[in-house]
Every structure is written in structure tokens, then in C-alpha cells.
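re the bet — no i am not wrong, look at it urself. input seq straight from the record:
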Amino acid sequence: MPATPAWPPQSTPRLFVEGELAPGPRRIDGPQAHYLASVMRMKPGDPVKLFDDITGEWLGVAASVGKRDVTLDVTRMLRSREAVPDLWLAFAPIKKGPVDWLVEKACELGTDRLLPVITHRTVVDRLNLDRLRANMIEAAEQCGRTALPSIAEPVKLPALLRDWDAGRTIFFADETGGAPAAEAMRARPGPAAILIGPEGGFDPKEREAIRAHPAAVGISLGPRILRAETAASAAISLWMAAAGDW
């Protein structure tokens, strides 16, 4: 007897929607409707996965497909919203292409919150947070996350340190050296943040202020000089492995 095909199939398109999902009709318009109707060539009866960052992931079935909108019949919940590892990423803003990559990978790797930090050597003092959130939404749609990371308004480093909760460890990626990252992260379980500096690194006074903070732990990411976005991705990966998320 042939096996029953999985439903919905793995190829089912997946979308984030604003507002809490529940059984019943759901109208999709704008770019998302164009994607479903023109790119995916959806027909009535075709499935789509929806997630709302509130309840979880749901199954929708196309009831009608028009040029400007698609009406879905939301039928049942597929998964509840995931439990997110309690890891934040604090990073100095970098140029447009690399920062887009950084937030995309931070989302894919499971980060809960992103904190842009303005430092003395930061070369970018303005971020398009709407664009960065759109990048994270697209990453979450692709990687299967049911929870979106939040992203805060940029804050200057002294204010970040002044207002920091001492119960959350700051793993400070220090290019001048520190404890091996994996070892330090295993030794300090619990809520954490990774702090990544700008191109050129933190200046000496900033490094001194960070190291003086009671929640800060200086870590090394190895013998090679890493770009900021590479350092962020590597540090997140090490923390996730130490926390048992991998």
C-alpha cells in the first residue's frame, strides 16, 4: 500500500501575518498576496502555513485567489509558539549589506532580541529598523521559526552598561583576548547577551568600561580576525551549542 503523502507538504509556502490567528477566514493582500498568487501560483484548495508570533503556526487553505488578494480558510494549529533561548545580541551597527546578513543569521540561529549599540568607532549611526525587521521576518519564514526576535532602538554604549540587568551575562567578544568562548559560556548558564564591537573594535576606554561591568565576561573567538557579522554568528552558534539548543 502506498504511503499517505504528508499534509501539508514540505513545499507549502510559509508566511508571517500581523495579528493573532484563529480558525476562520483570513484575507491576505499586498506583496504577500502577489507572492502567493503570482510567484507560487496558488489555486483554491492549496495550503499555506501561517505564523503570528503570538500563538504559533497554523494551516490555511486557499478559499479564493484574486489578483490583489487571497482569502485563506485558517483550519487548525500546527505548532504552538516556540520557547525561545534567552539570548540577546548587542552589536555596533555596520554597513547595509553586512548588517542585513547579521540580523538574518541572528534570527535563523534563534536569538531572542537584538540591541544596536552606538560606540566611539561606529561608522553607521542610523539604522532602518523596518528593513531589518523585514529581513528577520523573511528569515523566520524560511527557517521555520514561530517567534520573531525583537529589535530595539540604537542606544549608546554607556547607557547600555548603566541600565544593564546584572542577572544577564554579557559575553564580550574582546579582540585583545579573553577566555575561550565555548568554555566561558558553559561556565555561565542562564540569561545572556553577546556584545560585538564595530569595525576596528572598541576603543581602550570602552573596553575598560565593559570589563569593569559586573555582568561582563571577556571571551575569545579564536586566533583569526573576524568581521563583525562573522563574529556575531560564531558567538551565537557557540552559545546555542553550550545551552543545548543544538
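see?? The domain at 87-243 is CATH 3.40.1280.10 (Alpha/beta knot). told u. also Residues 228-243 form the longest helix (16 residues). so pay up
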